[in-house]
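Hi V.,

You were right to ask for the full record rather than a summary. Here it is.
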Amino acid sequence: MKAEIRKHIGKNEGDWVEVVLYHEDSPVEITRRTDALPGKRAGALDAFMEYTEGEKKAVIGHIYSARTEETKVRRIAETLSRLKGARRN
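Predicted structure:
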């Protein structure tokens, strides 16, 4: 465990901690407003909406797990590039 986290929870190196994991089952809610998107991005949204709930959560989780806004922006741009024209059959 990182020193920063240990300090925050009052633990020292080598101390035991109990970790409880919870199943994340909240739905991914994406508003489908293609009228607000330019043409190419609307196609990316269409492709994204065809993903399974698990795939959507993975993409969104990857974007929001970034530590800086700059990284989030880069990940969003990369995701849009991957989705552009990548419609599933």
